[in-house]
Structure formats: C-alpha cells, structure tokens
Amino acid sequence: GDSLSSGEQAVYEDGTSTLIRPDKYDYSWGQRMCALNSVEGYNFSTGGQTTKGWCNGEGERTWAGAQLEANWKQAYCIALGVNDRASLSPGDADTDIDLTDYTNNADTFAGWYAGIIQRLRSVNPKCRIFCITIPYNKQGYLDNNEVIRAIVPKFSKCYLVDLANYHWTPGRLALNDHLSPAGYQWAAWEINTYIDWIIRNNMSDFRDIAFVGTNYSADIQ
After folding, report:
1. Which residues on neighbouring strands pair with residue 11, listed in sequence order?
2. pLDDT confidence tier of residue 177, bands split at 50, 70 and 90
3. Is 213 exposed, middle or buried (0-12, 13-18, 19+ CB in 10 A)?
4. DSSP secondary structure string, 54-115?
C-alpha cells in the first residue's frame, strides 16, 4: 500500500506552516487489524507508493522484501491506486495482462496491479489476496477502481474489498489530508468486518489456510 496503508499522519512542525507526513506503522489499519485478531502482519507499504514503484522497488517494504521466503505471508491486502493516477493510465484488465508471464504486462495501472498479484503467487502460490479499492468514490479514482474490480475475477482465491462503495469515515477522524490514529482504527474495523464477511461466505477457500507456504493442502490436487 501507500500512505493510507502506512498510518501516515499529516501534521505541522511546531510553530511553523510546514506540513509533514510521517509513516506511523503502529497506527496503520493493517497493524490495528492484526491487533484485533491477535495475529502478526507486516506493512509492505510506504507513503507515496505506486504499483510500478512497488514492483520495481529495492527496499524491504517492496517486492524486493516480500519475495524473500522469510517474509512470505498467508494472505495479503493490496491497497494501491491513489498515487498511480499521476504516472500511469488506468489501462485495460482484458488486454494489458499476460496471465502466464507478468513481465509482458503493459505499462499501465492494470498491468502493474495484476503484476503484484502474479509476483506474490510466483513465490507463494497458495496465498490469499484481498484487493482493496481506493476509498474515494469520486472522479479521478473511478477508472482505477474499475480496473481493480475487473482484475479480481482473473485470479483464484483473490477477493474484492470494495471500500469505494462500502466506506464511511466521519470527518472528525481525519487529520488534515490523512487520518488520525482513531481514523486508522476505524478503517481497521471496516476492513476487518469486510474480510470476515468474505471468509464466512467462502469458508471452503480458507479451511486449509494454516498450510499456505507448505506442501500440504486439504484436497487432492
């Protein structure tokens, strides 16, 4: 994810008009959601991140870190698209994705977003993936959200968390142009509730979740 996944908070330096946006991972909705469920998780996210930047990144919180076996996870939440608008066209989920080789994907939001799923599955084939739409259902974000919705059905055990259609954050939980600690806690409850609903309605997909990353499964394959 980007800043909205990193607990980034927009604050002013004392006595100045300088706005800074530090990533505060402990306050991110991802870490607050982990706390709700007594599980461990990691933020492969940074403020300002894009799909292309994540795939080509060299830092621990990008694909460079996520591909290391020690960092494999049972499930991933992908929450990108806000910053891509400035550098990538939305593209087309039907024409911009080579499902057999992600290096052939187009240089579009569709191509790079699908490439994240493909990269994760290339090292961790059984992982479950939750694709989160941009939580702003307004002009400027609509095209990328439509791309995300179109990508999800192309991959097995990949699920849509459509915050654009099912999201509400009271204004008092904002902190300038991001969220406050309470705002990220609110987001954690929202996303946790949505994922819980997905699991309850796809229970057979999650019965062997404990064996993601191993050679064991619940069914003959």
Report:
1. 20
2. confident
3. middle
4. HHH--STTSHHHHTSGGG--SEEEE---TGGGGT-----TTTS--TT-GGGS-SSHHHHHHH
End-to-end, the C-alpha distance of the chain in Å comes to: 33
Q: For tokens 């990328």, name the residue.
A: 144
C-beta of residue 133 within 8 angstroms of C-beta of residue 106:
no
Confidence at residue 47, expressed as pLDDT on a 0 to 100 scale: 97
Residue type, 87: S
pLDDT band, very low/low/confident/very high, at 110 (cuts 50, 70, 90): very high
Instruction: For 151-189, give one letter per residue: b (16+ CB within 10 A) or e.
Output: bbeebebbbbbbbbeebeeeeeeebeebbbbebbbbbbe
Average pLDDT score over residue span 86-111: 97
Q: Which two tokens stand for residue 138?
A: 């307004």
As a whole number of angstroms, the distance between CA 67 and CA 212 comes to: 15
What does DSSP say about strands 75-78 and 178-179: parallel, antiparallel, or unpaired?
unpaired
If DSSP codes are grouped into helix, strand and coil, which group holds residue 159? Answer: strand
Contact between 28 and 43 (Cβ < 8 Å): yes
Length of the chain: 221
pLDDT over threshold 80, residue 8: yes
> Ramachandran region of residue 95, left (φ > 0), alpha (ψ -120 to 50) or beta?
alpha
Return the pLDDT at 64. Answer: 98
Closest by CA position to 155, among listed 132, 178, 125, 187:
125
